[in-house]
Amino acid sequence: MRVLTLRDPGSKSGRALTIGNFDGVHLGHQAILEYLVAEAAKRNLIPSVLIFQPHPAEFFSPIEAPVRLYGVREKVRSFLDVGIEQVCLLPFNVRYAQMLAEDFVRNVLVKELSVRWLLVGDDFRFGSGRSGDYQMLQNLGRELGFEVEANQSVKIRDMRVSSTAVRGALSSGNLNFAEELLGKRYNMCGRVVRGDQIGRTLGFPTANIHFCREFFPLSGIFTAYVDGPEMNQRPALVSVGKRPTVTSKGDVCIEAYILDFSGDLYGQMLNVTFVRKIRDQETFAGTCDLIAAMKEDEKNARLDFELDVT
Fold first, then answer.
1. 235 with 259: CB under 8 angstroms?
2. Which among 252, 237, 241, 190 has a CA at the least distance from the CA of 219?
């Protein structure tokens, strides 16, 4: 297990812990984490999060597993924002998939992580065959010396805030509702790599951004802000998709055309914050039609960002 220390825990001993996927770190997750931080402070414990990498759903059914909203990097940044001090990354593998629920509590939670206070959902299931539940945690907590508390759901418009709801909003292009659920605009962070340089030949030089995932929760042409070592909140046009007009590879690419910018960004980490969906990905008859559409996209983006339209 790898433990990331985000802040100096000082003289604290033992952990206040919550366990989960925390994909997207939406408003429901934020409420859980903020409560955890507050209760940890009362008990002089280290507010900590245990996440699995990969998520168990990806381990058991990689094809059917939900598309991830966040990678580990984005999650850790969000944990830091709400006051979490340590993130415990458990490599989910055959050993943990076959581990009995009671052994997980005794050997991982108590022996390795020194848990003193645990916050989970009352429907939380864990261990081989998902045999462990909230009642087992309470019973073992009394025996082994840790407290267990159930977290509460957060609702918006009578809908439970969930990662599934965020995925649905993003996939339908409803970025405003996704922002409501997340408490902020959806963002992704990745490194600029050398691409096919097709955009440059079309008059739209783009930064090809590599993300450590194969599938994405949204697709299309978007306005966005890009942040990096050499820029802050730079307006951009971002394409997420397979570029059907210019290649038949079928690989999903994320390309950012940063407005009114020129420079070498190779190797830099960039954060993309999505603002508005302009349109879906389209297959055009040829590059002339594609260039015309891209010019119209740029015009719309410039109007959105109140920039000069050339």
1. yes
2. 241
Tell the burial category of 201 from Cβ atoms under 10 Å away from its Cβ (0-12, 13-18, 19+).
exposed
DSSP for 213-270, written as a single string: -S--S--EEEEEEEEETTEEEEEEEEEEE--TTT--S---EEEEEETT--S--TT-EE
Overall average pLDDT of the 274-301 stretch:
90
Strands 231-241 and 253-258: antiparallel
**Cα 27 to Cα 159: distance, rounded to the nearest angstrom:** 12
Pair 226, 271: CB distance under 8 Å: yes
- C-alpha 130/C-alpha 124 separation (Å) is 9
Identify the band that residue 131 occupies on the pLDDT scale cut at 50, 70 and 90.
Answer: very high
pLDDT at residue 253 tops 90: no
**What are all long-range contacts of 261-269, with beta carbons under 8 Å and residues at least 24 apart?**
261/231, 261/234, 262/205, 263/230, 265/192, 265/207, 265/228, 265/230, 266/192, 266/193, 266/194, 267/191, 267/192, 268/191, 268/192, 268/228, 268/229, 268/230, 269/189, 269/190, 269/191, 269/192, 269/228, 269/229
pTM score: 0.90
The identity of residue 178, as a single letter, is: A
Tokens read off for 15: 């952990």
148 φ/ψ angles, rounded to the nearest 5 degrees: -130, 135
* Residues 238, 274 contacting (CB under 8 angstroms): yes
Cβ atoms of residues 219 and 260 within 8 Å: no
Asked whether the predicted pLDDT for residue 248 surpasses 50, the reply is: no
Domains of the chain: 2-159 (3.40.50.620), 186-304 (2.40.30.30)
Distance CA 261, CA 6 (A): 34
CA distance 185 to 214: 22
Q: Which residues pair with 46 in a beta bridge?
A: 15
Is 53 exposed, middle or buried (CB count within 10 Å of its CB: 0-12, 13-18, 19+)? middle
